[in-house]
Amino acid sequence: MPLKEELEAARKDIKTDSYPVSIRELASLYKEGELDIHPEFQRFLRWSPEQKTTLIESLLLGIPIPSIFVFQRDDGILDVVDGLQRISTILQFMGELKDEEGSILPCLILTKAVYLPSLEGMMWKNDNQERAISDDIQKFFRQEKIDIKILLRESDDQAKYELFQRINTGGTPLSDQEVRNCILIMINRDAYFDLEDLSRNNDFKNCCPIPDRLILERYDLELILRFVLLYNVDIESIKDFSDLSRYLTTKMREQLAPNEMELSAVKDVFKRVFNILDAACGDNSLRKFDAAKDKFGGPFLISAFELMALGVASNIDHVEERGPEWLADKIKQIWSDSRSEGIYGQGVSTARRLPKTLALGRQFFSED
Predict the structure, then answer these.
(1) Quick one: which of 66, 60, 65, 61 has its CA closest to 94?
(2) pLDDT tens digits for 236-249?
(3) Roughly how many angstroms between the first and final C-alpha of the chain, as a whole number?
(4) Are strands 145-151 and 295-297 parallel, antiparallel or unpaired?
(5) What is the bridge-based pairing of β-strands 295-297 and 288-290?
(6) Residues 180-198: pLDDT tens digits?
(7) DSSP conformation class of 104
(8) Residue 217 has what pLDDT?
(9) Fewer CB in a 10 Å sphere around the end CB: N or C, the chain?
(10) In what order do the strands lie in the sheet with 35-36?
(11) What mean pLDDT comes out for the span 263-273?
């Protein structure tokens, strides 16, 4: 299809509108339930108090901020798909932001700002009037306008998710998995909380000792998503992909949509896998084993996750019949098995490694 025809067809799938709204109107839409910022997303908010203060200072000074993007649902409610941190900061500053249970969160306490250093310690409301934002400044703040871009409900349904992925503007960017989590909440809230529940499994946490920084970026949920999407995958179907992140997002949208995948069965397999891995090798389960030194060492390895966790998952009945001691020996053996040559090490891309690790793990843990 020629470029012009592709462009015309794609533009028909996306219908937008744009207009400025005052902060007063924005807060009113939120309070009346016509603006949904998804309270579940607040766990992904990673703006520091200084970043929040900078936004409030900018609005007080009349400095334009980036547009807010929303999606108009069939019921007319506006879903925020970009601008979550900005809107949440504004609402928290005004004492309007609610948590998942509907309770009002504590007001934002501002820090020292570049142009308005007197903002330090100030709040929207405070029994100490010297620390409270005055009525005239509050009125001025409410009148400040923000540009809203609306993706209308006539747009193609996938456009919302593409929009969320492509525009992650300003502040502290979300990790790929945090973006996926937000998309999954929009697609299938129950599926998201199923994955969140698995992330609290003690056997899983013990077997996957990942750094706190990666947990903050929800790498633990990425591992669980990999498990869900890959443990029973047709290996031939993944040999041509070159971008694992895009693959995970695409397959998540397809397979975790409502009425698609039954998660109860895979959740049961997940728990059984990490229960026996933990019993076999504990927090060494997914570390490298050095046969010459007869000990495990080094950090958690994603290649070990692909080999061990997904390999055991494909043979869980066989592995459980033989027990933890048998599994511990098998885990040690796989590191020196000739079939694993070329799988590990620097310079081995995910695209090259994953089909090999999945195939080897499935075969290796089916053997006695």
Answers:
(1) 60
(2) 888 878 888 889 98
(3) 54
(4) unpaired
(5) antiparallel
(6) 887 887 788 889 989 999 9
(7) B
(8) 83
(9) C
(10) 16-22, 145-151, 68-72, 78-82, 35-36
(11) 96
Tokens encoding 13: 């799938």
Question: How many Å separate Cα 235 from the centre of its chain?
Answer: 25
Give 344-353's long-range contacts (Cβ < 8 A, gap of 24+).
344/288, 344/301, 344/303, 348/303, 350/244, 351/241, 351/242, 351/244, 353/303, 353/306
Q: Tokens at residue 12, please?
A: 């028909």
DSSP string, 185-219: HHH-HHHHHHHHHHHT-HHHHHH----HHHHHTTH
Residue with tokens 């109107």: 25
Q: pLDDT per residue over 61-112, tens digit each?
A: 998 888 888 888 778 888 887 788 899 999 999 999 988 778 898 999 999 9
What average pLDDT is seen over the chain? 86
Alpha helices in the chain (DSSP H): 3-13, 23-31, 49-61, 84-93, 135-143, 157-166, 176-187, 189-199, 202-207, 212-216, 219-230, 244-255, 263-281, 302-304, 310-314, 316-334, 350-364
Nearest one of 207, 160, 166, 220 to 184, comparing CA atoms: 160
pTM for this prediction: 0.72
DSSP designation for 134: P
> Distance between CA atoms of 136 and 146, rounded to whole angstroms?
19
- Tally of CA atoms within 13 A in the half-sphere of 233 that contains its CB: 26
Q: Provide the token pair at 146.
A: 């923000």
What is the predicted pLDDT for the residue at 305? 95
State phi, psi for 72 to the nearest 5 degrees. -85, 110
Mapped onto helix, strand or coil, the DSSP state of residue 347 is coil
Distance (Å, whole) CA 125 – CA 134: 9
Distances (CA, A) of 277 to 96, 191, 206, 327, 355: 46, 25, 10, 8, 22
**91 within 8 A of 30, measured Cβ to Cβ:** yes
The SS3 of residue 141 is helix
With the C-alpha atoms ordered 200, 252, 153, 24, is the resulting torsion angle positive or negative?
A: positive
How far CA 13 is from CA of 6, 10, 78, 151, 367, in Å, comes to 11, 5, 18, 10, 51
